[in-house]
Amino acid sequence: MNPELLYILKVNIALGVFYIFYWLLLQKDTFYLWKRYYFLAALFLSLLFPLVDFSGFFSPVQVQTIQQITPLFPINVSGANKGFSMQDGILLAIIIGSIVLLVRMGIQLISLWKIHSKSTPDENFNDCKIRKMYTITNPFSFFRTIYINPALNDEDLKAILNHEQIHVSQWHSIDIMLFETICALCWYNPLVWLLRHAMRQNIEFYTDKQILEAGYDRRQYQQELLKVSQIPTYLKIANNFNFNHLKKRITMMNKKKSNRMQLLKFALVVPLFAGMTVLANNNVSLINQDTKLTVEVKNSNAGKFAVDKSTHDFKTIKEKDGKVTAIFTFTNNTDKPVVITNVKPSCGCTTPEWTKEPIAPEKQGHVKATYDPAGRPGPFDKTITVETSGDPSSIELRIKGSVDIN
Known about the structure:
By secondary structure, the protein is an alpha+beta fold. It has 12 helices and 13 strands.
């Protein structure tokens, strides 16, 4: 599979899994600050974990075997070099859709700039910049600035300013911009839009909770929400006072505070992420198995100090015939000389000899392993560790067979 498309697939699966986990276990809790951290962690972990390759950790034998194969003829991946493929078409459609939505975000930012340029500064409120608008739109905040409509009465303005000041102090605009961007990039995934919806709901729940804990009258605050909700919302990328979840917000305001033991559910994120990482880095991937293996075999020795074989099988040898020798040939595929610094056999029955001088690029060297079968009847399987100044710095070789005393 196209590596860019595979990365996109993994990111979208992870975002979907994080949303389902939230929907099943977390959505009814009142731990709004913890849930904010969860949403941000879900976003960044989904983007980063496909980039980390743990394949060597999960299946080191398979990777080592692939690296030591030297094909006698070129191996072509099925479907390669056929011009514009279906995968290319899918990737192009994703890119075009993302560009359209990113342009729409840009248009909204331009609209915000126009509102800002036409507004006038007012007195600051708790270190927040206040600007008066003269358009019929719902009050909102964006980063460190609150935009209000002076046509509202003093009581309504008081509730709005306190509400938006919390958005400003918590930098909720960062969350919104991040999730608007990921929705633009993953526009085809409905679970990503649902995750964004849940995130925006949560920051409103958190803000409402802070207002009520500050001593604001619950009933009066809810009535003011109802009044202001009649004013249209102009910008989706800003923190709007009414935000289209009024019924849900009132329900959550009246909800009993969750038991602190419920916080333990957030600990399940660790095995959830670990499981996704294992699956994403499994070498035997049903999606990419054939393509990945053929490409790795074809290029396994590029830029490496490579050996022609990792194992030499003597089969059956006779003790009376004396010592036997296996020769391992090394090729320097790097761009600088490589020295075989040491060769360590696993026992004294094996005597090594090797090329001592530096091996120039594209040249070859040898390691000879001589096995003495005297007094050692039966099967044998010995290792020889070759240490080098190149890449890899250590290579393990094997000699094996069986000694016949007759």
